[in-house]
Design a protein that fits this description.
Blueprint lengths: L1 E6 L3 H8 L2 H7 L4 E2 L6 E9 L2 E13 L4 E10 L5 E13 L2 E12 L8 H19 L7 H10 L4 H6 L18 H28 L1
Antiparallel strand pairs: 1-7, 2-3, 3-4, 4-5, 5-6, 6-7
Helix pairs in contact: 2-3
Length: 210
C-alpha cells in the first residue's frame, strides 16, 4: 500500500518531530501510551466501520541515511489472539506551502480484523495514517492549566503575581463590614437615657415649686 498526506508545515520541522519518540507517540491518534515506554508502546483502539478493536503493541521508527524512516509495528488484540505486523517506509518531501508525507509498505494481520469487510479495513487504515501525518505537524500544546495561568498573568508584574491574594475557592473570606446605620444606633441609647434623666430632674423641680 502507499498513502500520501499533505502537511502545511516545513519538511525540516517534521523531521525534528520524527526524531523525538515522545512527539511521535503523541501523533498516534488515540494511543494510550505506557508510562516511560521506549520505544512507543501502549494501547490503541482502532475503529473499523461499526466495529472497534483494541490492540496492545509497540511502534519503532528509525531514520536512514537516505532521509527515509523505517516504521515497524507489532500488536496483539487486548481481548483475543489476533495480531498485526506493520512494515512501512516513511518519507518527507518539500511541497508548495508545506510538505508531503509519503507512507508505503505492507501490513499483515489475523484474528478479528480478517472477519471485517476489506474496504472498511482499507478506509480505517488510510484514516489512521492521515491523522498520524497531520498530527506530526501540530504544535506542542501546553497543558490547559498552564495556558490559563499564563493568560491571567499577562500585564501583571512579578511582584504582583507573587504577593497577590489567592482567588476562587481558596480566596480568604472577607470580614463582615460594619453597617453604616450602626454608628447612629450606638449613640442613640445614651442620648435617650440622657433625655429621660433630664425629664425626671425637671419633673421633680416643678413638683417642689408647687
Amino acid at each position: 500500500m502507499e498513502h500520501e498526506v499533505f502537511v502545511p508545515v516545513p519538511a525540516e520541522r517534521l523531521r525534528d518531530v520524527l526524531a523525538d519518540p515522545a512527539r511521535v507517540a503523541r501523533a498516534v491518534p488515540g494511543l494510550q501510551q505506557d508510562a516511560g515506554a521506549e520505544p512507543v508502546a501502549g494501547r490503541l483502539k482502532v475503529r473499523i466501520g461499526s466495529h472497534s478493536i483494541t490492540y496492545r503493541g509497540t511502534l519503532r521508527l528509525s531514520g536512514g541515511e537516505d532521509g527515509t524512516y523505517a516504521v515497524r509495528g507489532d500488536a496483539t488484540e487486548s481481548r483475543g489472539t489476533g495480531t498485526v505486523a506493520l512494515a512501512l517506509t516513511l518519507r518527507v518531501a518539500d511541497a508548495d506551502g508545506g510538505s508531503t508525507v509519503v507512507l508505503g509498505g505492507t501490513a499483515t494481520a489475523d484474528g478479528r480484523v480478517t472477519e471485517l469487510p476489506p474496504e472498511s479495513v482499507t478506509s480505517a487504515t488510510a484514516r489512521l495514517l492521515t491523522r498520524f501525518a497531520e498530527n506530526l505537524g501540530e504544535p506542542v500544546r501546553p497543558p490547559a492549566e498552564a495556558a490559563h495561568a499564563r493568560r491571567t498573568m499577562i500585564g501583571r508584574s512579578a511582584e504582583e503575581v507573587d504577593h497577590a491574594p489567592p482567588r476562587g475557592r481558596y480566596a480568604p473570606v472577607p470580614a463582615p463590614q460594619p453597617r453604616v446605620a450602626g454608628a447612629p444606633l450606638r449613640w442613640a441609647a445614651p442620648a435617650a437615657a440622657l433625655v429621660v434623666a433630664s425629664a425626671i430632674v425637671v419633673g421633680r423641680a416643678l413638683r417642689r415649686r408647687h
